[in-house]
Design goal:
184 residues, alpha/beta, 20% strand, globular, NAD(P)H_dehydrogenase_qn
Length: 184
């Protein structure tokens, strides 16, 4: 079983990097897609858009990531919540990598997910706001990701873990991480 860890936090001393390190203890043979260290450009540029409708790409990292994902059984996404949503680099990953004829096909305007070989997806987020606030007052950004975006790609077994108040207590963060690492 291949586990892939996807991350895109630019600050290497962030709690996201602590989470990544802990998960690498649990999954030592996991493949890590680190969008920042890879130099991934999340912007959809003219060259990307010219090929988009064909399910093709201009960015060579897209092909690398698609190859990794095509062999992935378990996908774990580690990301901060900034301004009540995922950072641009993660959103850009979905925009540029999850292309037609790779992540989905389209029949009569309906999307048919193609990544059904990924049996489990885990989304781990961190931020200042607690999960309840994100769900009730901030438009539940991960709800849309789980119920629409990932589902349209064929990813059905999706779990979400969120650590709010991430700047308050390092001890609380470590306690939370120990619990989540066992569940992931």
């Amino acid at each position: 079983m291949q586990t892939t860890l996807l991350t895109g936090h630019p600050y290497d001393k962030s709690f996201n990097h602590v989470i990544l390190a802990k998960l690498l203890e649990t999954y030592p043979s996991a493949i890590v897609i680190n969008l920042v260290t890879d130099g991934f450009n999340p912007a959809m540029l003219a060259d990307d858009l010219a090929l988009f409708s064909k399910g093709a790409y201009a960015d060579p990292l897209v092909g690398k990531y698609q190859q990794i994902l095509s062999q992935t059984d378990k996908l774990i996404i580690i990301a901060p919540i900034w301004w009540y949503g995922l950072p641009a680099i993660i959103k850009g990953f979905f925009d540029k990598v999850m292309l037609k004829n790779f992540a989905y096909t389209e029949i009569n305007g309906r999307l048919i997910g193609q990544l059904t070989h990924i049996k489990e997806t885990v989304v781990i987020t961190t931020g200042i706001a607690p999960a309840i606030y994100l769900r009730l007052f901030a438009g539940h950004p991960i709800g849309a990701l789980k119920k629409r975006i990932l589902k349209d790609m064929g990813l059905k077994q999706v779990k979400w873990f969120h650590k709010g108040n991430v700047t308050k207590s390092a001890a609380a963060n470590q306690k939370w991480l120990a619990i989540v690492a066992k569940k992931v």
